[in-house]
Amino acid sequence: MTQAGYPFVVKELKRAQALSEAREIFRGEPTDVSMSPFVLRDSEGNIHETGAIRAISSFESEYVVFRPNRPVKLNLPKKAAMIGLVGGHLLVRLDEDWRPPGDISFAAGSLISYDLAEWKQDPMRAKASLVFQPGPRQALSGLGATKNLLILTILENVQSRAFAYKYDHGAWSAAPIPLPEHANVSLLATSDETDRAMFAVSSYLRPTSVWYFDVESKSLEELKTTPAAFDASNHIVEQLEATSRDGTSIPYFLVRPKNARFDGTIPTLLYGYGGFQASLLPSYLGPVGRLWLEQGNAYVVANLRGGGEFGPQWHQAAQTATKQTTWDDFIAVAEDLIRRKITSPSRLGIIGGSQGGLLVGAAITQRPELFNAAIIKVPLFDMLRYTKLGAGASWIGEYGDPAIAEQRAWIEGYSPYQKLMAGKTYPAPLILTSTKDDRVHPAHGRKAAAKLAALGQPYFYYENIDGGHSAAANLREYARQLALEYTYASRRLCSE
Q: Which spans in 185-340 are helix H?
């Protein structure tokens, strides 16, 4: 196992063999994050290559292919991912700018392809072709392959569109798939026997629907919609922008009552994440609508740097030494909501889990006067010891290593556990964690509560004994968790 707790040895196990007889074929290093094998299959089930992915860090990998004489390390950049095969081409996604030797350059966030026959003959000298390159405020969101086509979902200013790509006459061309606009479109499934695909379409106020698309007949059909969970008729969705400390525009979605009076009185919950290149996209609010919006309240989702809403650069702008940027963006959105008189500090609460729990912890320790409620779920909190707890060592690529003096200084500047101090008033947070969380150790949440108790600060704490990183093992436990969160939010933000 690596220091992060994942395997770094790849073995070949034949059918009916004992595990002890498996033959080792590749080995990484204990300092890696993990190692995993891969198999490249086409739509007919034919195997064209086998190899291994060596995850050097959270966001850097090396690919090797197993050739008869020895493993061959591919000349891909470290921030790249092999996606698979479609139409006789190998697809690779780039998360950094790259110029292959003697080739044209490709921008971060692009999707490129290799002719499979040429690549198999000599993967080191095969020439890459551009499939997709993001424009301003664009990002590749999802992809999948049918028998002959590549299906992409692309974000533009955090709004989704879907396209069918085909390789013809030496180049890739795209045709839009006319799914509903102003929604989040995600690819659910593709057929490798036909050119058909299924999509999920969702927005904050519209229940999620499933759509079926047949490329050959160009038929597009809405198959089913989930039942409405709340009355959305009294609310609208707006996309607004806040200006962060360094002048960058930070988009956010505001779900608010149609008849809102902008006098600072709307109870508002602000949700964020801002890490690991994960994008927060519109999705049906369901229980949030029933438990929060129907009472005439507002809900906000912030698209912070550190996420992936605008591609790899949006993530890398708030990573390691610049992680404080994520917290600055979140605080800027909170200030913008107050400036617009949508809400006020006495009516504003924040919510987040995991990396989002760290986000909420950083916000209340840096600007406690902005908030009157904070829901901190399965959080990272003591960032000076996070690499020693749970799977923490695998996230050094996101935050840095506190064992290195220079990097410890970055982290110490915001680590919420160390920033809780006497003489400040914090917004009585609700801390939720799970005894069985094997991702983010419950010690983070426990230590947050213990530090608040030692300072004589009010707080609420609930630790579920089941549920892993979700802090709930079944629907009953999840319902209890939601009840705790929104009872707390209502009492903190809605009471006179």
A: 287-291, 312-316, 324-339
Helix (H) or strand (E) holding 489: helix 475-493
User: Which is it for strands 61-66 and 171-177: parallel, antiparallel or unpaired?
Assistant: unpaired
350-375 pLDDT, tens digit per residue, is 999 999 999 999 999 999 999 999 99
Q: What is the mean pLDDT of residues 218-245?
A: 96
| Alpha-helical segments (H) within 270-421 | 287-291, 312-316, 324-339, 355-366, 396-399, 405-412, 416-419
Percent of the chain surpassing pLDDT 90: 91
pLDDT (0 to 100) of residue 102: 75
CA distance 267 to 368: 17
Instruction: Identify the helix (H) or strand (E) that includes residue 41.
Output: strand 34-41
Each residue's pLDDT tens digit, 288-319: 999 999 999 999 999 999 999 999 999 999 99
**Range 454-480 burial, b when 16+ CB lie within 10 A, else e:** eeebebbbbebeebbbbbbeeeebbee
For 196-271, where are the E strands, in sequence order?
196-202, 209-214, 219-225, 235-243, 249-257, 268-271
How far apart are the C-alpha atoms of 394 and 55, rounded to whole Å?
Answer: 10
Put residue 207 in one of left, alpha, beta given phi > 0 → left and psi -120 to 50 → alpha. Answer: beta
Q: What's the mean pLDDT when you consider all of the chain?
A: 95
Q: Find the DSSP H helices in 246-367.
A: 287-291, 312-316, 324-339, 355-366
Catalytic residues: 354, 469
Non-local CB neighbours of 345 within 8 Å, separated by 6+ positions: 338, 369, 370, 371, 372
- Structure tokens of 434? 């799970």
Strand partners, 138: 156
Tokens of 238: 């707006």
- What stretches of 133-276 adopt beta strand conformation (E)? 138-145, 150-156, 159-168, 171-177, 184-190, 196-202, 209-214, 219-225, 235-243, 249-257, 268-271
Q: How far is residue 91's CA from residue 113's CA, in Å, rounded to a whole number?
A: 4
